[in-house]
Amino acid sequence: MADVKLAIIYYSSTGTIHAMAQRLGEAGEKAGADVRLRQVPELAPAEAIASNAAWSQHFDRTKDEPKATADDVVWADAVLFGTPTRYGNVASQLKQFIDTLGPQWAQGQLANKAYAGFTASMTEHGGQESTLLALYNTIYHFGGVVVAPGYTDPLKFADGNPYGVSHVTGGSNDAPLSEVQFAALDHLARRIVGIGGKLR
């Protein structure tokens, strides 16, 4: 799928979603895509960030990385959105970015692209599925095509999430991604690049 343009746009507070986004970017490139890996800006006040050492450290490490713009979504044939769960919903930082895409939506520039999502939560039932489903409500308004992984590969029975890819941190800010998540992320990248190419 040479020349498929894949945008990976995400928000990460302590680094889990960032690590997932990086793995997706590597897998997307291996699948032949031209990849843009983009963070959305942090919106939380400085005192909130400073109250959590892992959040503060991750903010400092990544503050100079490229930030997402509307052009990154318009440019792409396929888009992966990443967000931690926030009360079973999309984090405000990513939602705010999506909410700025009204002009592009009005011009039909967000339609007919492949979209999917990835997320993480502290607990096993911390809202991963509801977060991805909430994210996809926006994609329907875009006129985008949701490319959830479903159970299109036996590996999905290991990670168990047909809506996207997710990870449970277990309350640890440095809970590593396992081979199960890596396999699921690689599969999602290959799938969205393949279908994004067909849509294009």
CATH third-tier fold name: Rossmann fold
* Whole-number tally of structural domains: 1
How would you sum up the global shape? globular
How many strands, which pairing sense, and closed or not: the largest β-sheet? Answer: 7 strands, mixed
**Level-2 CATH architecture:** 3-Layer(aba) Sandwich
Q: Find the structural class using helix and strand composition.
A: alpha/beta
Mean pLDDT: 95
| Share of residues in strands | 15-25%
In terms of quaternary structure, the protein is single chain
CATH level-4 homologous superfamily = Flavodoxin domain
Q: Uncertain spans, ≥5 residues at pLDDT below 50?
A: none
Q: What's the CATH class, please?
A: Alpha Beta
Query: If helices are DSSP runs of H or I spanning 4 or more residues, what is the number of helices?
Result: 9
Number of strands: 7
Family: Belongs to the WrbA family.
Pfam families: FMN_red
GO molecular function, one term: NAD(P)H dehydrogenase (quinone) activity
GO cellular component, one term: membrane
List keywords for this structure.
alpha/beta; 18% strand; 44% helix; 7-stranded mixed β-sheet; globular; 200 residues; Rossmann fold; single chain; 9 helices
